[in-house]
Amino acid sequence: MAWRGEIDLGTPPAVSQAMVTLTIDGRRVTVPEGTSLMRAAALIGTSIPKLCATDSLEAFGSCRLCLVEIDGRAGYPASCTTPAAQGMAVRTQTDRLKQLRKGVMELYISDHPLDCLTCAANGDCELQDQAGAVGLRAVRYGDGANHLDQAKDSSNPYFDFDPSKCIVCSRCVRACDEVQGTFALTIEGMGFASKVSPSQSEPFFSSECVSCGACVQACPTATLIEKKVAETGTPDRFEVTTCAYCGVGCTFRAEMRGEELVRMVPWKEGKANRGHSCVKGRFAWGYANHRERILSPMIRASIDDPWREVGWDEAIAHTASEFRRIQAEHGKRAIGGITSSRCTNEETFLVQKLVRAGFGNNNVDTCARVCHSPTGYGLKTAFGTSAGTQDFDSVMAADTIILIGANPTDGHPVFASRLKQRLRQGAKLIVIDPRRIDIVRSPHVEAAHHLPLRPGTNVAVLTAVAHVIVTEGLVDEDFVRDRCDRAEFDDWAAFVADPRHSPEATESLTTVPAESVRAAARLYAKGGNGAIYYGLGVTEHSQGSTTVLAIANLAMATGNLGRAGVGVNPLRGQNNVQGSCDMGSFPHELSGYRHVSDDAARAMFRALWGADIDHEPGLRIPNMLGAAIDGEFKALYIQGEDILQSDPDTRHVAAGLAAMECVVVQDLFLNETANYAHVFLPGSTFLEKNGTFTNAERRIQRVRKVMRPLNGLEDWEITQKLAQAIGYAMAYDHPSQIMDEIAAVTPTFAGVSYDRLDALGSIQWPCNDAAPEGTPVMHLDGFVRGKGKFVRTEYVATEERAGPRFPLLLTTGRILSQYNVGAQTRRTENSRWHDEDRLEIHPHDAEQRGILDGDWVKVASRAGDTTLRALVTDRVAPGVVYTTFHHPATQANVVTTDNSDWATNCPEYKVTAVQVGRSNGPTDWQERYDERSRRSRRIEGVAAE
User: Fold this and answer.
1) What are phi and psi of 550, to 5 degrees?
2) Which helix (H) or strand (E) holds 489?
3) All domains of the chain in start order, with CATH
4) CA distance 910 to 328
C-alpha cells in the first residue's frame, strides 16, 4: 500500500464569516465565502487533480490541471483560483475535462525522467499520483531528455536538489517566499530552459537558503528530497510529537519505518508552527543515534578516575547510598537537584518532588534561573501571572511590534517567519538591540526604527519611551482607569515624566538618538495594536527584572493587553523552560507558582505526597555552588542541564562542582558538567518518551514515544527508581498518571489530561472549569492579581563597566544552526554551517588592534580569558563585541562575571567589559580545560577515539 501523508485541501481556508452554498458534481456543500472550488470539493471528498496547488500556499493557478466546468460560465477555469459562489453548479469530471487534463499531464511527463522504479519518491510522488488520477497511460512527446543533463546538487547535508525532475510548479519558490520569508529561490530561464535556482545559481549550501525544509515539503516530485528518505525508503507509519529544541514548540509527524526515523514533517495542525519548521527541528535529530551517546550507567570514585560501566540497579543503589550517607553526615540540606528545561513536564515535576519530598528540602532550581527568571518575577508582579499573555497567532493581528533583546530569526525562526509575514502585510517594527540583527533589514522587510542601545541600558531606553508617552498625552486613560491601580499609575507617571528620563537626557547613557526614541514611542502608542516581544537580551542583565517591569508598564499605559495583536510576549529559550517553571522548579515556589510559605498549598502537597514540605525557600544554583565551595553543600542531582558550559563565571562553577562529594549527571552525552561528575545516568531523547512540553505561549503539547529508549528507561523512570531507592515511594506506570497528579495540585493545569490533549491537540494554560479548552489570550477582562501594578523603573548602571583596562563590552547570543550549549546540534550536520564560535568586532575596533577577519584573538575580562577567531563586521557598534556560546572549546562563559539580576540572580551575560587583542593560540586555562575534558571521558575497557 502506498504511503499517504496528510490530507491536502489544495488552498488555504477562507476567513469570511459569510457562507455560500453550491453544488459540486450534484452534491451540495456550504463553505465560507472566498473558499476555492478546489478546497470546497476536497471538503466533501472530491479530489480535483492538481500540481501547483497546496493548502499551505496561496493559489497560483499555473499547472492548469485543476480545470473544472461551471454552469453558465464559458471556458474551463482553474478550481484553485476560482472562489465558490452562491448557487454555483460545478462539474469536476467530464469528457472534455479528462481530455484537457491528459494533455496537460502528458506535457509535464514529456519533460520528466521516467525512472519511477528507482526514484526515491516512488510511492510518495504527487506527479505519479496525478498521472494516475487523469488516466495517463502513454506519452507521445519523449521521456524528459531535456533535463537529463542537469547535475544534481547534493551540497546541502540534509536534502538533494535534482533539477532533472523539476516540473517548474513554483511551489518551492512560493514556500520560501510566503512561508519562510527568506526569498532564497527563484525560477531562472524561460520555457523548457526554466528551472529553480537558489540565489544566483549557487549551490544550496552556500546560498541564502536557511534549510527550513519548506521547499522540500512543498515539492511534489523528487526534485527536492531528504537524503534520509532516499537512503531508507518511504515511511510506513507516523506519530505526532513535539520538537525538543526552542520554546516555539513546533509539532511534527515523526515518520517511521519500523523503529527507524525517516523524516520529521511539520504537522499542519500544529497550532504553534502551522505546518512550518526550522533546520533544527526538521533535520537535526541525528544526535539521537550519535556514536558519542552514552547508553549505560557509569560510576567512578573520583573525578580523576576513568568511568566504569555498570547496570541500572548498581548505579541507582550507589547513588541512593551516597545521598543517604551525605545527608546523614552533613544534614538534609546538604544535597539538592536541578531540573531540566529539555525534559518533559512530568519528568521535571518528579525531580522537584524527589527533592522536596524525598530529600526533605527545597534545594531545587532550573535553567530558567539563568535565562527567564526575571520574566517570572516581573510579569507576576505586574499582572499576577509568570508567563506571556498571547498565543503566536496573535502576531498576525499586531500593527506595531517592539522587538527588544531578541533575535527570532536565529533563536525562534518559526515565529520569526510568522512575524515577517505580518510585516510584509504592513505592520511596523521597532527593534531595540545593540546589534543590527537580520530582521532589521531583510528581503521585503525593514524595521521602521532600530534603536542600537549600549548594552546594559535597556531600562533607560524604555523609561525614555514611557516619558514620551506620558508627557505627550499618549496614555490610554480608559484602560488605566478601568484596569490598573490609579495611585500606582500616578506615581509611575510622575516618575517617568521627570526631565531626567527624557530621551535627550538619557541619550548620553544609551547612545540612541533622542529623536529615534521619540519616533518609536509615538509609533508604539499610536500605531494600532501594539505587541512587545522580548528575549534574553532583556532578562540576562543586572536589571533584568526591572526591564520586564518597564515593558509591562508600557503595555498597560497604552492599553495593549487583553486582546489579540497586543501583549507582552517573552520568547522562551529551551523547549520546556516554561514548563519547568510551571512545575515548581524554583526553590521558593511549588507548581503553579505558589510560594513554599503558603500553608494551604503545602498542606495540599503533604496530603498527596505523604511528606512535609519545608516552608523555607531552598538554594538557587549560584548559592548551591557557593555553599559547596564553603563546604556546606555536598551533592547534586542534575537532570539534563550542562551548567559548566551554560552558567556564568565558569571557574566558579567548576570550583563548586569539584568541591562536592557526589555529582550525578543525567544526560545523553558526557557533557562538560560530567567532567566533575561521580555518577552518569544515561537519559532518553524526546523520540523515546511520552510526556508533555509547554512552549513560550503556555501551550501544553504531547510528546509521544516513537521508538524504544536506547538506554532502556525513560527519564521519569530513572527519577522514580532513584526515589524508591532512597526510601520515598513513587509508583507511576505511565506519564499520564503524573499529569493527573500535576492537575490535582496545580490550579492552572486543573483541566489538563492526556485524553483532553489528544482530543484538542494542545491546551494553553490556565485550563480549568472556567476555561476547559485553555486560554489563548490572557487578561481579557482583568488581571489575575486584580488591578495592574505600575512600578517605578529607576535606571541603575551595571557594576560591569568599560574602562581603560577593559574598553569593550561583550554581549552573547545564539545562531540559527546551533542550539544552546550545542550538545545536540554539534552532533548533527548543522555544524557544517557553524563549526566554531566567532567574535564579532566592528572594523574600527579591529583596525585599532591590528585584527583582520579570521585572526585568532584573546578576549580577557575581570573573570578570565579565552581565545577564538574574529569576524570583522559592522553588525555590531563600535565599542561592542559579540559571540555565541555553542562550542565548549571556546568556553565563552569563562569571561562572563558573577554579576546578576537584583531580584532573581539571573546572570548578566549580556554585559561584560573585555579587552580584545591578537593571539597565537589557546590560553593556559583552555589547555588545562581541554586536558581535563579528555581525561574525564575515559571509560574502562573502551578505547579512546
Assistant:
1) -65, -40
2) helix 486-497
3) 1-93 (3.10.20.740), 311-370+577-752 (3.40.50.740), 373-570 (3.40.228.10), 808-936 (2.40.40.20)
4) 41
Q: Which residue has the cell 484602560?
A: 479
Cβ-proximal residues to 770 (8 Å cutoff; 6+ apart), any chain? none
Are 350 and 364 contacting, i.e. CB atoms less than 8 angstroms apart? Answer: no
Q: Are 451 and 432 in contact (CB under 8 A)?
A: yes
For residue 809, the SS3 value is: strand
pLDDT digits (tens, 9 = 90+) for 571-596: 998 899 999 999 999 999 999 999 99
Cα–Cα distance, 909 to 130 (Å, whole number): 55
CA dist 5 and 238 (Å) reads 9
Q: Is the pLDDT of residue 631 over 70?
A: yes
* Phi, psi (rounded to 5 degrees) for 464: -65, -40
In 3D space, the residue among 639, 594, 637 whose CA is nearest the CA of residue 613 turns out to be 594
pTM of the complete model beyond 0.90:
yes
How far apart, in Å, are the Cα atoms of 816 and each of 55, 412, 438, 675, 715?
Answer: 27, 8, 11, 28, 28
Encode burial over 263-300: b for 16+ CB neighbours within 10 A, e otherwise. Answer: bbbbbbebbbbbbbbbbbbbbbbbbbeeeebbebbbbb
The sign one gets for the Cα dihedral 417, 423, 425, 427 is: positive
Residue pointed to by grid coordinates 504511503? 3
* 803: exposed, middle or buried (Cβ count in 10 Å: 0-12, 13-18, 19+): exposed
CB count within 10 Å of CB 377 equals: 22
Query: Which is nearest to 519 in space by CA: 503, 538, 533?
Result: 503
